[in-house]
Specification:
The protein is mainly α. It is built from four helices and four strands. The strands form two sheets. The protein has a two-stranded antiparallel ribbon. It is elongated, with a radius of gyration of 33 Å.
């Protein structure tokens, strides 16, 4: 089997196509969640805590400067606000995935255990005992 035919067989499997669709939808969902956090959730939170814009919240470790040769040295900063936005995005995505899995588990039909076989009638039990006694002789 040629490499191209083998790749075609691999790519056309149901699981691979399902995975590709899931990745594309997941990427789009990630963009929606990013927009939700940055443009809808964080502005009111920033307003509640005194007008702080969390996306611009940074801790400066070293201020920007100019060296002896006149070359600009950029500031060294930790983007705490961007990190906070990412944590909130993760929490929203994790909660959404939890809800989807919970709904899927609810939709999956629970397999009921097979009922125990009914006890044989008394006359069959008596005949079985007689047979076993006759075999012992």
């Amino acid at each position: 089997m040629g490499l191209l035919a083998e790749f075609k067989q691999f790519a056309m499997r149901g699981n691979v196509v399902d995975l590709a669709v899931g990745v594309v939808i997941g990427a789009a969902f990630g963009k929606i969640v990013s927009s939700l956090v940055e443009q809808v959730i964080m502005p009111p939170i920033g307003l509640l805590v005194g007008g702080v814009d969390f996306s611009a919240w940074k801790i400066t470790l070293q201020a920007a400067s100019v060296d002896a040769a006149g070359k600009a040295i950029p500031a060294v900063e930790m983007g705490i606000g961007a990190f906070l936005n990412t944590i909130i995005q993760f929490a929203i995505v994790a909660f959404a995935i939890f809800m989807v899995v919970k709904a899927m588990n609810r939709m999956v039909k629970k397999e009921e255990p097979a009922p125990a076989p009914a006890a044989p009638p008394a006359d069959i039990v008596l005949l079985t005992e007689i047979r076993d006694l006759l075999k012992q002789r």
